[in-house]
Amino acid sequence: FKQTNQGYSNRGMSLESDINVTNTYYLETDQAIIHKKPTPVQIVNVKYPKRSAAVITEAYFKQASTTDYNGIYRNKYIDFEAKETKNKTLFPLANIHEHQIKHMESIIRHGGICFFLIRFSPFEETYYFPAENLFPYWYEKQKDGRKSIPYPKIKENGTIIPFHYQKRVDYLSIIDKLYF
Amino acid sequence: FKQTNQGYSNRGMSLESDINVTNTYYLETDQAIIHKKPTPVQIVNVKYPKRSAAVITEAYFKQASTTDYNGIYRNKYIDFEAKETKNKTLFPLANIHEHQIKHMESIIRHGGICFFLIRFSPFEETYYFPAENLFPYWYEKQKDGRKSIPYPKIKENGTIIPFHYQKRVDYLSIIDKLYF
Ligand SMILES: [Mg+2]
Ligand SMILES: [Mg+2]
């Protein structure tokens, strides 16, 4: 593949699509079994037309009670949340909810590997950021402290993830270094 | 609680509700973090009314590509499928799909604990049935063999799960015996 094509593909995709491509590659090469959880939906009305599939005619988005992705890698339970920002100087904590933090704390307590994948889209950079390193910032925010993590701190306490054509967000390579 | 109340509660609930009550109890007592995956839905149309929540006005049920539940217990990745039958003599294999079997095989290969919770509702009995013990029956069915597992084989190769008021389907007690 030409470098230019790679650059183009990279720019065009959202973090979520890149992670999905990566997870499919992990699955097909039998390295890890990691899936995105379906979007939680509160179903209110369903119609059952004759001779065709059931149609949901009224439903609402529910707030997710956990994280975006989970699965298994090298005998370990894996759990993570993906977040993308257009900001160039900081990562905002506004969209990280208390029940998600509690969930992640509890995963770590039970022996799982838990982290954030954070993309700064203006730089096309994606970071592996251990959940443990995010908690102190989140609690500071709860105590009316700053509402974000400065970009240099993400660089300092996280690890940049290299881009490959199939492993677009190769977070397992970081887990290998950190845990094995 | 009176015995009669317990009996009443037990009869009234579906396997899924019983598992959800159990998982909530496990979560609140910090024993395990196990959640039901949301129902996968293909969203086709969404309306955004002013001053109120987005409404999904057209969506379809998608076939689940994995299993019903997953999570972590004592450092181990847990993954299972719940199935209820009204049959009194056999457990039908019709609703277990190839991609689910492949998923479960791969979970086991990667070090996870994988099983079925099978309820015979006429007997109010729920069995822990290791995925490994189901695979041979499923492959036999694929080769035009029998399409079900006889009830006595479920008893023989599975473990009956005791009913408790809060731990309605206490499958962790079986995992403790089998894996720890
Ligand atoms: Mg996300
Ligand atoms: Mg089921």
Care to describe what's here?
The structure is a homodimer. With about 180 residues, chain A is an alpha+beta fold. Chain A is about 35% helix and about 30% strand. Chain A is built from 6 helices and 10 strands. In chain A, helix 3 runs antiparallel to helix 4. The interface between A and B is large, with 38 and 38 residues. Strand 3 of chain A pairs antiparallel with strand 3 of chain B. The structure holds magnesium ion (MG) (2 copies). The site of one magnesium ion has 4 residues of chain A, from strand 5. One magnesium ion binds next to strand 5 of chain B.
Along the chain, the helix and strand elements of chain A come as HHEEEEEEHEEHEHEH
Q: Count the domains of chain A.
A: 1
Helix content of chain A: 25-40%
The major β-sheet of chain A equals:
6 strands, mixed
Give the CA-CA distance, first to last residue of chain A.
32 Å
Strand content of chain A is: 25-35%
Summarize the structure.
Two copies of one chain form a homodimer. Chain A has 180 residues and is of the alpha+beta class. Chain A has six helices and ten strands, in the order H-H-E-E-E-E-E-E-H-E-E-H-E-H-E-H.
State the main characteristics.
Trna Endonuclease, Chain: A, domain 1; 6-stranded mixed beta sheet; disordered N terminus; 180 residues; 10 strands; alpha+beta; 6 helices; two-stranded antiparallel sheet; binds magnesium ion; homodimer
